[in-house]
Design a protein that fits this description.
The protein is mainly beta. Helix content is 7%, strand content 25%. The strands form 6 sheets. Strands 2-8-15-11-10 form a 5-stranded antiparallel β-sheet. It has a 5-stranded antiparallel β-sheet with strand order 3-4-5-17-9, with no helix packed on it. A hairpin with a 2-residue loop joins strand 22 and strand 23.
Length: 497
Amino acid sequence: MRNLLVFALSVVTTPLVNAFWRMECRARSGVGQIDPLMTPGEVSPHAHIIHGSGSFGFAANEATLKTASCTSCAVTQDLSAYWTPPLMFMDDQGNSEMVEQVGGMLAYYMLNGENIQAFPPGFQMISGDTFRRNSTLPPTGGDPNAPNPNALHVGDTSQATLRQKALGFNCLHYQAPPEGSLQRNSLPSKDYLDANCPDGLRLEVMFPSCWNGKEADVPDHQSHLAFPDGVMAGNCPEGFGSRLPSMFYETIFNTGAFKGKAGQFVIANGDPTGLGYHGDFIAGWDQGFLQNAINTCTNPSGRIQDCAAFTIQDQSDADKCQFPQPKQIAKINYLGTNKGLPGGVQIQSGPEPATEQPMPLGMGATSAAAASPAPSPSAPGIFAESSATPSPAPSPTIDPVNSQASMIASQASSPPESPPAVTPAAAPPAAPAGKPIATSVYTSNGEVINMVIMEAETTVTVDSVTTAAAAAPAPAMVKRSEHLHRHHHARRRHHYH
């Protein structure tokens, strides 16, 4: 029997003003060398993990995405496509494998600013530069692997600087004070991850939200947009006075599974620095529907379940949404072990910019059918405190002064209507041993509440029958706000099988 322990960490902060919602994409729609923005109609030089519309492909655009009959994200009206390169581990013999993605991906739609407009028809964008290998941000003066709580507030506010600040690599350690989002702008070393980040690494990318009000896309997929001076929020530069939803991706990888193994972590584009991490987006919303959501989905919880406009599908349906794997890459082994990176991508450490790499086809012998990321155990289960039901998807740590925090939710398998009488085990300590299977952040009375849901082995007596609880298969993820004090509240909830 699983025993779910919910711990809430309260962070006192000023009341949150701006609304937002978090799009839960707990299943992938595919994996492969596909990038219709950078290499339309062709095989991409490096692999991506893709979430969203079931009509993704080499030539995907808004029109083709909207022909899909499904999405791997939670809201059925969202036929957008969201993709990033995955994190890989390469051992000292040159063999690589994709690091397990835990809980899927979250895409935050933050409504920062005034008169926010829905994405125009045909809207596409990229954040990040796959070729960057050198940082021009001011040095912190300390350990280059350590987070910098002032990372968003140092340096100038040029677009070149703001673009570099828009990447984050968040070290996850559930028993330590949490880091804030975008406090580390490069990939920490494996030694640092082994020593400090037992619960994984969360990769983050913020997108620009200031628009020139003219083009829905441009050849570089970037120059029609600009970052506000605070990266996540703030003032838009001249010529970019139209405000769009502020989008923020986060994906958690189980780097702890490689602790003690000789090798290095590297982004699938051959980047061991993290400076070339990037995210891509093609909008697949009906413009009128999205504008209505922007205007009405203003519950400060950030939960998609609190917006009446959204139709939320069962996770089992999202799990089934897979786009057809193109035949050109069908035999490449993205999900197993390769000699070298998938596609033959070479590692380029910089500091000079990386060079474009041709993609030698035929690498790998295993079919690359797109598998869903490791659910935070017992997918499609969801777990809740009180009436809310946080899902296993990861949650980010966004600075509450500049942005929002929120709560994940979905629908769990319910216990029987009349469960047998249970004699629970003794109340757990404040920080028990167990596997974290979900985290969530939500707001309540002007506070940001951070929850970590643990699954631990316990023994309970049910009508005189003793049952041992099964441990969860894989950890989920951490996230959180920063500083201020923490309060632990333990609750337990039983699921019967």
